[in-house]
Amino acid sequence: MRRVGLFTNTTKPNAVKWAETAVRMLQVAGAECCAEPDVVEQFSSPGTRSIRAIPAEEFDRFADVIISFGGDGTMLTAARLFLNSNIPIMGVNFGKLGFLAEFNANEMEDALSSIMTGNYIIEDRAMAEVVIGGETIYALNDFVVQRKNFARMITVRAYVDGNLIADYRADGLIVSTPTGSTAYSLSCGGPIIAPACSVFCITPISPHSLTLRPLVVPDTSEICIETIESADIQLVADGQVVRPVKGGEQIVIRRSAEEVKLVRQASGSYYDLLKKKLLWSANATEGK
């Protein structure tokens, strides 16, 4: 990887500073870099300000790899923005958890060295898509059907491959990919799903019934959600893209033909990441 695009969330404290530090390290290693013009303008040294300043939408014409400086939200934005480019994305975390952006700032030197020497792995992650109103919307984590006003529940009807699953009376309904299983779905009682699994998880949000539980289905299935109520319902993709849903309108969710390539550390596994980020199994054997 000799051409690097730096996708930087300028609202995150220190993200621009660390992006500039990364440029210096990469230049020493012989890499060429690009960043968005407003980011380059904030760099302090002539050497770093001399890199290519181009819009993020044009990174795919230049970069072999993209480094995201921000948090998981920045990674989700980058995943959709560069979806058709086939360029791998590495995340440096300046947010809270950093499950997708798994590298911390203090690990950046080693991470950049790995990029330059090829000591990394690339994971293909499944994307979900919805075609609604003639528009295709993508999500790496999840789609959520919910009311604009959280003070009231919604009622939706869900089908899998034309088979009625349930009428959900709840605060909302989540359809997550394996990548998104550790996000909103997990907080609502959904299972953790390893990224290599080819499934979707349908998770109700605070259902008004003890019989409604998360349901895992093959991602070869087509999930159809029909709104029974007409007032103030919306579809949210990855917590970022919001589209209003009309009463009776059908939301059809399927696996996309597109995938996202994530740069991961060569050492360690997904289960090590669970332990590191979510404290998975922490103290399970303490005192034994």
Describe the structure.
The structure is a single chain. The protein is of the alpha/beta class and about 290 residues long. The chain folds into 2 domains: about 5-120, Probable inorganic polyphosphate/atp-NAD kinase, domain 1 (Rossmann fold, 3-Layer(aba) Sandwich); about 125-260, Tumour Suppressor Smad4 (Sandwich). About 20% of the residues lie in helices and about 40% in strands. The strands form 3 sheets. Strands 3-2-1-4-5-6 form a 6-stranded parallel beta sheet, sandwiched between helices. Strand 7 and strand 8 form a beta hairpin. About 40% of the residues are buried.
Strand content: 35-45%
* Radius of gyration, in angstroms, nearest whole number: 20 Å
Number of DSSP helical runs = 7
Strand order of the largest sheet: 3-2-1-4-5-6
Give the class-level CATH name of the largest domain.
Mainly Beta
What portion of residues is helical? Answer: 10-25%
**Total domain modules:** 2
From the spread of the alpha carbons, the general shape counts as elongated
Number of strands: 18
* Average pLDDT figure: 90
- Named at the architecture level, the CATH assignment of the largest domain is Sandwich
Main β-sheet: number of strands, strand sense, barrel status? Answer: 6 strands, parallel
Pick out the low-confidence regions: none
Helix/strand order, N-terminal first: EHEHHEEHEEHEEEEEEHEEEEEEH
Structural class: alpha/beta
Distance between the termini: 47 Å
The third-level CATH topology of the largest domain is Tumour Suppressor Smad4
Relevant CATH superfamily of the largest domain: Probable inorganic polyphosphate/atp-NAD kinase, domain 2
